[in-house]
Design a protein that fits this description.
alpha+beta, Glutamine Phosphoribosylpyrophosphate, subunit 1, domain 1, six-stranded antiparallel β-sheet, four-stranded antiparallel β-sheet, 10 strands, globular
């Protein structure tokens, strides 16, 4: 079985309280396993030898009013094999925490600061999470989605994973709606970041319309498709 590599960012927008995450991997469909968000609660990234069940435990801990460090402790305690896990949390107040087990794969790294946490394994350079996190902190001029994409691109530019990235996922949740504002995935591609950026260029102009259709359908704009009146 192929060993796969992953690197990711969890981030909170200080001005809007939006929560977001972006993750890429040499395995397919990384968005189905690694990034998890709940509006007004927080973000959990679970990767390396991934156990998606830990995300529910982490988010439940945050929902009870505990902070990011407590969520990490709870997930570690709940796991039968914490030494294989790599975890990151950013809570709704911007507190962040990370954990990398002693059996993390290959070159690995982690970084956290207010409003951001980055982790990675089987990397070409251990500095990648720190570089991505510092870039995220600096680019407060960007929307959260653009900020996450640009920060992950820093990781790509530094060499990314040792293996070829195959999939990527971008999630953004707003504080006023309980469902994903943005949920874009490239599940298998030779150029996942390039393909995600193309998807985002299309979807960014429609995201607000889809929110309106869910909350206030009578005010929704035309779909602009055949048969729409």
């Amino acid at each position: 079985m192929k060993i796969t590599s992953t690197f990711s960012i969890a981030g909170r927008c200080e001005s809007t309280n939006a929560l977001g995450a972006i993750v890429t991997s040499s395995s397919p469909a990384v968005g189905a396993r690694c990034p998890w968000i709940k509006s007004n609660v927080g973000i959990v990234l679970t990767q390396n030898v991934t156990d998606p069940r830990l995300a529910d435990i982490g988010l439940s801990t945050l929902e009870q009013g505990y902070n990011a460090q407590a969520a990490i402790r709870t997930m570690k305690t709940a796991s039968d094999f914490p030494e294989f896990r790599q975890l990151a949390v950013v809570d709704s107040h911007g507190e962040a925490s990370v954990f990398t087990g002693e059996k993390a794969l290959g070159i690995h790294g982690e970084f956290f600061a207010n409003n951001v946490a980055c982790i990675g394994n089987l990397l070409s350079d251990a500095v990648i999470p720190t570089a991505m996190g510092n870039y995220f902190i600096k680019r407060t001029d960007l929307s959260l989605a653009d900020r996450l994409i640009a920060s992950l691109e820093v990781g790509f530019d530094l060499g990314g994973e040792l293996d070829q990235e195959r999939s990527i996922a971008l999630l953004v949740y707003l504080p006023d709606i309980p469902f994903a504002y943005i949920d874009l995935r490239v599940d298998d591609s030779d150029h996942p970041l390039k393909d995600l950026k193309k998807l985002w260029d299309i979807y960014k102009h429609q995201a607000e319309d889809y929110k309106t259709r869910a909350i206030q359908p009578e005010q929704a704009p035309s779909y602009g498709v055949i048969g729409d009146k």
